[in-house]
Amino acid sequence: MYWCQYRYSLKNTKMKISNLLFIASIILIMSCKPQTGNPLLGKFNTPFEAPPFDLIKTSHYIPALEEAIRVHEQEIDAIVNEAAAPGFENTILAFDRSGDLIERVSKIFYGLNGANTNDSMQEAAKEITAMMAAHRNSIRFNQELFARIQTVYQSRLESGFDKEQLRLVEKIYDDFARNGAALPEDQRNELKKINERMSAISLQLSQNLLAENNGFRLVIDREEDLAGLPERVVAAAREEAAGAGLEGKWVFTLAKPSWIPFLQFSERRELREQIYSAYTMRGNNNNEYDNKELFIELMLLREQMAEMLGYENYSDYFTSDQMAGTPAKIYEFLYKVWEPSLKRAKSERDDMQAIIDRRGEDFELAPADWWYYAEIVRNEKYDLREEAIKPYLAIDNVREGIFDLTKQLYGLSYVERNDVPVYHQEVEAYEVIDHDGSLLGLLYIDPHPRPGKRSGAWCGTYRGGAWREGERIVPIVTIVMNFSRPSGNTPALLSWDETLTYFHEFGHSLHNLFAMGRYDRTSRSVPRDFVELPSQILENWAAHPKVLKTYARHYESGEPMPDELIEKLQNSKYFNQGFENAEYLAAAILDMDWHTATLTAQTDVNEFEKQSMDRIGLIPEIIPRYRTTNFGHIFGSGYASGYYVYQWAGVLDADAFRAFEESGNLYNPELAEKFRKYILAGNGIWEGMEAYTLFRGHEPSIDPFLESKGLK
User: DSSP of 273-333, one letter per residue?
Assistant: First the structure.
């Protein structure tokens, strides 16, 4: 959407003259002439008005954001200086509609800074983060603006608002109140400094982690040290070495498609230990990228902020507007799953130690050994090896399987668009078409790792879906992964975990594509412990034999995965679940402990972590999925004290999928329509549990979740 064409609908004849004058002032402000030469500030002359990535340079971002901040400040001033009494249109709606340009520029910058960064972008990020933090503060603590919002909020129940309007009023008011707008001036000034410092620390922690990811390479120059590795893993390492100018050698990195297969198959125990130690020690090496001191400072600032806002600790603050409600309920849930998970993990450890002993290998199982011996257990117990599965999981086939699933459920279709600008040659772009032939949105898929991409997988937007003058502004959605690369003439063959991740992230994209709320603030606004429901439920279809048959086809012959192999996959669904649950839960509990503890500047990060894990009885053969110094989820505020949400939402997704199973039709159109309406599209209206019970008819049972994990 061209930012200088910001529009309001003037069709409501009941609107007061003062509101019309107010809107006219907004239009006047927005009719400014964009800076010439900066592609971020003009109309995007591209299909779907997608970002012109090919034209944008790092030098464009800061001037564009300076202009965006100036425009946003004028929008806020217009609201504050409106002569008429505060009302929904001239205050709440005007605030909700403000900031289009700053949204545009910041979404593009932060999206690329995560997916395709470089040194100059990382330098710019420091200045931009400071600019954005200061600007957010200027709005959060604007007393005249807050007073107008508060006036509307206080009379909301007598104002005849519909349910969606009422929710918008309450959300915007809560945003200000929860961030300290009502504090005395001296505390507001202190909180401004805290917010700005926390933003800077979060960025530095993430940049340090990326540097640590890129700073390690396991270089192998002897062929005998490749013992046990499948040819496709060796070929990928050979290509990685060639790309680094190390012809004739093999390079393994801390990208998941590199280090995990190495741990699974390498017969060189000392090399397995070397790469796994490098992975788990990221940010904890007492070098220029060490995160310990920064992390403690961040925890202390979060604690200070929470106390200033009247909360016992940061976790108390975070959970107060989540489904869980309190830290105590989160701990109760995590411990309920922890005990059976730990019991199962101990049994799995004993199975692996028995293999070590049987082979006459004189050592105790160590964390770096787990993947290698787990693969042996899978082969012995289930006659199944990862290498037998991967030829049926070519990345394009998995994508087409997801496309087919969403066609069956929602009637969607996809058209690849090679005329849409992309920011890297590996990125794919698809036009997404709804069941009625209307345009639903644009989707980018960015599948493979590279040095400029942070680790993990995520979904975001370069433009959120919105409504302007009664017209739909379609979203531009992106899913970013770090999946196995093609090698030579062999296409990218995914692991089973990568396949589930693909379905998972696509579920997030559907949430963004389907969200139809009338207001920017509340559309797709769900609690953090609800947001993983739309993603995780798709994983249930991924593993179902009926769905597997539609996409799991051999990359050479095109033959579907044999029934015998599907049966083995089904029989092994509980394989390694003790480990997977235990390492995840250990990290979730560690996150909670950090955000509920009373800390000092002298708190020792490694000792705190050890005491946390000792308290819950984590066995030494397992390390938390993320250690403190590389726990990227909690560096920012999104998942801080919120890593628990994946299994909390797991209860929801297992119960929701049970509804489809019980109906006798995995693609039940009535259930799919209800899921779309209440969970994916209409979340501008309902809160988490209310939306869920409207879909399901009752609150979720934990039993399907426990059964799915082999814990019951």
Answer: HHHHHHHHTTT-SSSTT--HHHHHHHHHHHHHHHHHTT-SSHHHHHHTTSSS-SHHHHHHH
For position 469, what pLDDT does the model report? 87
- Domain covering 292-384+577-643: architecture: Orthogonal Bundle (1.10)
- Would you list the DSSP string of 130-191? HHHHHHHHHHHT-HHHHHHHHHHHHTGGGTT--HHHHHHHHHHHHHHHHTTTTS-HHHHHHH
Domain range 3-182, CATH class: mainly alpha
Distance between start and end Cα atoms, the chain: 51
- Residues (pLDDT < 50) of the chain are 1-34
Other CB atoms within 10 A of residue 6 CB = 19
Q: What sign does the CA torsion over 398, 399, 404, 406 have?
A: positive
- Assign 3-state DSSP to the chain and report helix, strand, coil percentages, each to 5: 60, 5, 35
**54 exposure class (CB count in 10 Å sphere: 0-12, 13-18, 19+):** exposed
Rounded CA Rg of the chain: 26
For the entire predicted model, the pTM comes to 0.93
Helix (H) or strand (E) run with residue 414 in it:
strand 413-416
Rounded to an integer, what distance in angstroms lies between the CA atom of residue 204 and that of residue 289? 9
Do 292-384+577-643 and 391-571+647-708 share a fold?
Answer: yes
pLDDT tens for 673-686 read 999 999 999 888 99
Helix locations, 385-430, DSSP H: 386-389, 395-410
What are the residue numbers of the active site? 505
Question: Is 215 strand, coil or helix?
Answer: helix
The structural domains of the chain, with segments of one domain joined by +, span 3-182, 216-280, 292-384+577-643, 391-571+647-708
Question: Where does 552-602 show beta strands of DSSP type E?
Answer: none
CA 406 to centroid of chain Cα atoms: 21
* Cα(106)–Cα(101) distance, integer angstroms: 9
Cα(499)–Cα(553) distance, integer angstroms: 13
d(CA 233, CA 591): 34
